[in-house]
Write a structure and sequence with these properties.
single chain, alpha/beta, Aminopeptidase, 8-stranded mixed beta sheet, 5-stranded mixed beta sheet, 11 helices, 31% helix, binds zinc ion
Length: 363
């Protein structure tokens, strides 16, 4: 959908930038849409749902059920503004979107909700108010398809490239049988993959499909609703994940195109490589350490400090790290006369980070 790519950069939702997306940041945008309150979070924030379109195919989408995963929230708001302006494309659909299922986690920049519960491990017990809200919307709306929207950590690679986007048609039972719902979800992912390959060769992966009845996607798939897990990932130095956002939202548009035109490609799904935990944030080679030279792998820890996300370098591993890949690779041979002997790990990483200017802030 080149039309979407042409319009994406000027959509009003581009006001949303960075990694720290809270309810107060999306509130003004939500009022541009037909809006309903569908629940209240643990700490009393409203959980809202947008409804757009009045066509026969019903799609339920939700984002930020993990509060610190906001890339898909930015991206799905791009999709909503695009649909608002493109009535013909929207015509086959009625879409309900819960853009922020876990507003408390979003405010605190945590995966879990304010009770410390992972909402994507609460499908069986349904112990949390946010989970109730999602299941009530699901029961009332009776969607034909579900899109479950997330971010993945920086550690995923695919085919020795960083995995920018990954997808899953969740299993509906322990035997991972290809049910009709699963097959349709696979077909949509196959279609998205073919479209993305023209732009992002080797950067699209398939997520692990181990069945977990406590995951919401697995649960809806088991109920017979074709459900797709979308995972926005890390590529290069795009820590604000703006490129990821663009290609994520492009893929959602492609998914809609596929559903409207029934251009399902389930056989393509199996050709998508599985994601691997093969990446770290920074890999530094030739670090002089105790009379030898070693490699050092750094993983960022994301912390909320004064309304910004601070990416704090922490030690992942050191030694011979030839198996690892990284979003940034530095050769320390060009730095003369530095020594890291007699430093504990913490001081070692601090000195390296300061020397190489590795810290990062996102709004
Ligand atoms: Zn998630």
């Amino acid at each position: 959908m080149n039309l979407f790519l042409q319009q994406q950069s000027v959509l009003k939702s581009q006001l949303l930038k960075g990694r720290y997306i809270t309810y107060s940041k999306i509130e003004a945008l939500l009022s541009d849409f037909d809006l309903a309150k569908v629940g209240t979070s643990t700490k009393g924030l409203p959980i809202k749902a947008i409804t757009i379109g009045n066509g026969p195919i019903k799609i339920l989408m939700w984002s930020q059920m993990h509060g610190n995963e906001a890339t898909s929230t930015k991206g799905i708001m791009d999709v909503m503004y695009f649909l608002k302006d493109n009535a013909a494309f929207l015509a086959p659909f009625t879409i309900q979107l819960i853009p922020m299922l876990n507003p408390d986690g979003a405010a605190a920049y945590t995966r879990v909700n304010a009770n410390g519960v992972d909402l994507n491990r609460d499908a069986e017990q349904q112990s949390q108010p946010e989970t109730h809200a999602l299941f009530e919307v699901y029961d009332a709306f009776q969607p034909d398809y579900c899109f479950n929207l997330h971010d993945q950590r920086t550690l995923f690679g695919v085919n020795d490239e960083p995995c920018m986007l990954s997808y899953l048609s969740p299993a509906a039972d322990v035997d991972k049988l290809i049910t009709e719902a699963r097959k349709q979800a696979m077909g949509i992912i196959g279609h998205m993959n073919e479209s993305l390959l023209q732009h992002l060769p080797n950067q699209v992966g398939r997520y692990d499909d181990t069945y977990n009845p406590n995951c919401v996607g697995d649960c809806f798939q088991a109920k017979g609703t074709p459900t797709i897990l979308f995972e926005c990932g890390q590529s290069g130095q795009d820590y604000d994940r703006e490129a990821t956002r663009k290609w994520f939202s492009f893929s959602v548009i492609e998914a809609l195109h596929c559903i409207a035109n029934k251009s399902f490609k389930p056989t393509v799904y199996n050709s998508i490589p599985e994601v691997k935990k093969s990446y770290v944030d920074v890999l530094i080679h030739n670090v002089p350490y105790q009379n030898t030279k070693i490699s050092v792998a750094i993983q960022y820890e994301e912390k909320l400090i004064s309304d910004k996300i601070f990416f704090e370098p922490t030690l992942h591993s050191k030694g011979d790290l030839s198996e690892l890949n990284a979003h940034k690779i530095i050769d320390l041979n060009k730095f003369k006369g530095v020594s890291f002997d007699d430093l504990d790990d913490r001081a070692f990483i601090k000195k390296l980070s300061e020397m190489l200017d590795l810290t990062y802030y996102s709004h």
